[in-house]
Amino acid sequence: MSTDTDTGEHERVGSLSADDLNRASGRSTRDLVTQVAAAQPTAVASVVDALTGPDAHGREVTQLLQLVVHTAKAVVADCDAAGVTVVQEGTPFTSAWTDERTLAVDRDQYDVGDGPCLHAVRTESCVRVTVSEAGELWPDFTRAATADGVQAFLACPLVVDGTRFGALNLYSRSLDGFSDHDEAVATLISRVASGLVAGQLRQHRSATLISQLEEAIASRAVIEQAKGAIAVVRQVSPDDAFGILRTVSQETNVKLREVAARTLREFGAVLA
Fold it and tell me: In CA terms, which of 9, 99, 217, 265 is 20 to 30 Å from 171?
């Protein structure tokens, strides 16, 4: 199995090699996308329009992932269902899906700890197999897939800011499975999706930081007012006034800001 389609590294499992899992492993992602853009310009245009247009703006991560799976199902011709596996602290779960029947297939992979999507996450490379090939590699999980009529899998990794975030999973009930063009389109979708998720997470972290800074500024203002009030009433220095606030905070196990606010209320001061 391939660890990275662009490095040429190979690993064999059973009688299948990296080239069996990823039939386009000899081509870079750019070459694949260039090829499908020439062969299927409408598909590429649909991906760009759906994932970079107005509908993608302002969505939370889970909403973005739901948009991604619906886009994949609509654009990839052989895709009958799509989902996104997210791995957090080593635990995988399905965050978005188009068909609830595929959740059983996902659960079987999670239960045994292996399968196309988990392999795609670990190796950061696309995995494209038929159900018979998957059964040879991961026999314990294929029962649910077979029962649901799934005939082929295509899983593409989602790598966010250099971190293994999860995988985009496509399922086909066609005996022909997925084509090189399908893989190229899915790769494009997964790369765009990774960028969208990264942007949302960075925005969230920035918003959290701003909120923390605003809270710190507000807390500082309340504490300074309380120090001034104590200094005036008790005729002590500002440093001694702060020491009084800190002592009360430690002895009562109450945050310093709350002690300061309570002090102001007791003195009849007006909070800013």
Answer: 9
- How many domains are there within the chain? 2
Per the domain annotation, does 1 fall within a domain? Answer: no
Give pTM, 2 decimals. Answer: 0.67
Residues 140-176 as b/e (b if ≥16 CB within 10 A, e otherwise) read ebbebbeebebbbbbbbbbbbeeeebbbbbbbbeeee
List pLDDT tens digits, range 248-267: 888 888 888 888 888 888 87
CATH number for position 114: 3.30.450.40
Rounded-to-integer distance, Cα 28 and Cα 126, Å? 12
Average pLDDT over residues 139-163: 86
Give the pair of three-digit tokens for residue 265.
């209320």
Residues 192 and 116 in one domain: yes
User: Which burial class, exposed, middle or buried, applies to 206 when counting CB atoms under 10 A from its CB (0-12, 13-18, 19+)?
Assistant: exposed
Q: Whole-angstrom Cα distance, residue 269 to residue 185?
A: 64
DSSP, collapsed to helix, strand or coil, labels residue 170 as strand
With respect to residue 102, please indicate whether it lies within any of the assigned structural domains: yes
81: domain range?
A: 18-205
SS3 212: helix
Q: Is there a single domain that holds both residue 87 and residue 222? A: no
Q: C-alpha angle 58/34/18, rounded to 5°?
A: 95
Selection from 18, 17, 24, 14 nearest residue 2 by Cα: 18
pLDDT number for residue 28: 66
What are the CA-CA distances from residue 194 to residues 47, 86, 127, 190 (Å)? 13, 12, 17, 6
Q: In sequence order, what are the residues at sequence separation of 6 or more whose Cβ sits closer than 8 angstroms to the Cβ of residue 54?
A: none
pLDDT, tens digit, for every residue of 171-210?
Answer: 999 888 898 888 888 988 998 888 888 888 787 776 665 6
